[in-house]
C-alpha cells in the first residue's frame, strides 16, 4: 500500500543555516532515503523549492482563473518535500514517518494514496 509522507518544517531557520549544519541536515535526509531504498519501500521523493517560489491557482465562482504569488495559506510550517513509500500497512508507514528527519524539525503527515486506474 502506498503512503505519502508530507514533510512540513519551518522554512526560516534554514535560510541562514551554517554550511556545516546544512551538510549534516542534507546527509540525514540522504541516509533516510537510502534506508527506504534498502528496505524496498522507496517509490519517489523530492525537496520543494522555497514557499516564496510558489504560485497558487484557483477558479473563482465566476469561472475566472486566479493566479496568486506565494503559498495557499500562511503557516508556521511549510510543505518542504515528500516521500512516496510502498509498505504493508499504516503502522509501518507511521514507523517510517517517525524516522524521518522532518519529524524532529516539524511534522510528517502520513496519508494513504488512492490508486488511480490507468486505462489502456
Question: How would you portray this structure in words?
Answer:
This protein has 120 residues and is of the alpha+beta class. It has a single domain, classed as Alpha-Beta Plaits (2-Layer Sandwich), CATH 3.30.70.1060. It is 32% helix and 32% strand. It is built from four helices and six strands. The strands form two sheets. A four-stranded antiparallel β-sheet has the order 2-5-1-6. The longest helix is centred in the first third of the chain and has 20 residues.
Helical content, roughly?
Answer: 25-40%
Number of helices: 4
Q: How many structural domains does the protein architecture include?
A: 1
Q: What name does the CATH topology carry?
A: Alpha-Beta Plaits
Cα-to-Cα separation, first versus last residue: 23 Å
Blueprint of the fold:
Layout: E1 2-9, H1 12-15, H2 19-38, E2 42-47, E3 55-59, E4 65-69, E5 78-86, H3 90-99, H4 102-105, E6 107-112
Antiparallel strand pairs: 1-5, 1-6, 2-5, 3-4
TL;DR?
The protein has about 120 residues and is α+β, with helices and mostly antiparallel strands. It has helices at about 10-15, 20-40, 90-100, 100-105, and strands at about 1-10, 40-45, 55-60, 65-70, 80-85, 105-110.
Amino acid at each position: 500500500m502506498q503512503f505519502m509522507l508530507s514533510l512540513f518544517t519551518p522554512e526560516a531557520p534554514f535560510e541562514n543555516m551554517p554550511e556545516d549544519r546544512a551538510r549534516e541536515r542534507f546527509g540525514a535526509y540522504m541516509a533516510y532515503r537510502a534506508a527506504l531504498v534498502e528496505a524496498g519501500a522507496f517509490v519517489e521523493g523530492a525537496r520543494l523549492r522555497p514557499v516564496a517560489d510558489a504560485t497558487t491557482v484557483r477558479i473563482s465562482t465566476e469561472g475566472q482563473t486566479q493566479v496568486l504569488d506565494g503559498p495557499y495559506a500562511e503557516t508556521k510550517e511549510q510543505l518542504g518535500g515528500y516521500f512516496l513509500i510502498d509498505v504493508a500497512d499504516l503502522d509501518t508507514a507511521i514507523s517510517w514517518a517517525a524516522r524521518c528527519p522532518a519529524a524532529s524539525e516539524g511534522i510528517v503527515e502520513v496519508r494513504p494514496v488512492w490508486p488511480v486506474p490507468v486505462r489502456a
